[in-house]
Amino acid sequence: MTRVALLARKKELVAETPNFNSRKFRYYLSRANYQREWGRGYRRPGVGTRILAFFLKFIPKVGPFKALDFKIPTQQTEDLYIASVNHTLDNYKGLLAETETKKLHLPDTDFDTGRMTHAGEYVLTDKAYAHLLDELAQQNFAQITPELRNNILTFYGDPSAPLATKQNPGAWQKTQDEVQRLKTLTPADTPALQISALP
């Protein structure tokens, strides 16, 4: 359905946008270079897709065909998107430059929301901390570093925080028990080993 929708609205989607910044955004590659860098995974719409796209133009956009009634982004929306991509690239280049000079400092922010990380700030953050704590507890905290221990205890430091984990009483009780176990460890008891990334 996505292929059909794109084919049916192709002229609207590929219309040239009179936006100077879009030149910076675009990335031109010849087909040979594209296939060398990204592979040959792209499939062109076949005859069946083209026929279906033609007939679907006349079908009411309800039920499963509602996907065909998507709205083309406005000029303002496209400008904001292009500007955001350009800003992201400029920021990334700046971070790479800081890495080369060994001056990189990354604040503890949520990559999804951009806000400072704290308990109850974001559901996925709450779940990630609970998962990490559980993984460490299963190993009796054998791989935790003093810095990671302090980070986890700080995250769970406010008992009144609106953690998503609290919605499941059993899971929340387990998390509280594991936090208490972690509190009994002193920094001197924690070996200086690096923990592997979460799956």
How would the blueprint of this fold be written?
Blueprint: H1 2-8, H2 10-13, H3 22-25, H4 31-38, H5 47-56, H6 75-100, H7 123-138, H8 146-155, H9 169-184
Commentary on this structure:
The chain is mostly helical. The protein folds into three domains: 2-72, no CATH class; 73-106; 123-189, no CATH class. Helix content is 51%, strand content 0%. The chain has nine helices and no strands. α1 crosses α5 (47-56) and α7 packs across α9 (169-184). Residues 192-199 have low confidence and may be disordered.
Quick recap:
This protein is mainly alpha-helical. The protein has helices spanning 2-8, 10-13, 22-25, 31-38, 47-56, 75-100, 123-138, 146-155, 169-184. Helix content is 51%, strand content 0%.
**Uncertain regions: pLDDT < 50 for 5+ in a row?**
192-199
Q: Supply the number of helical segments.
A: 9
* Portion of residues within helices: 40-55%
What percent strand? under 5%
Silhouette: elongated
Order of helices and strands: HHHHHHHHH
Q: Compute the CA-based radius of gyration.
A: 25 Å
Which whole number gives the mean pLDDT?
81
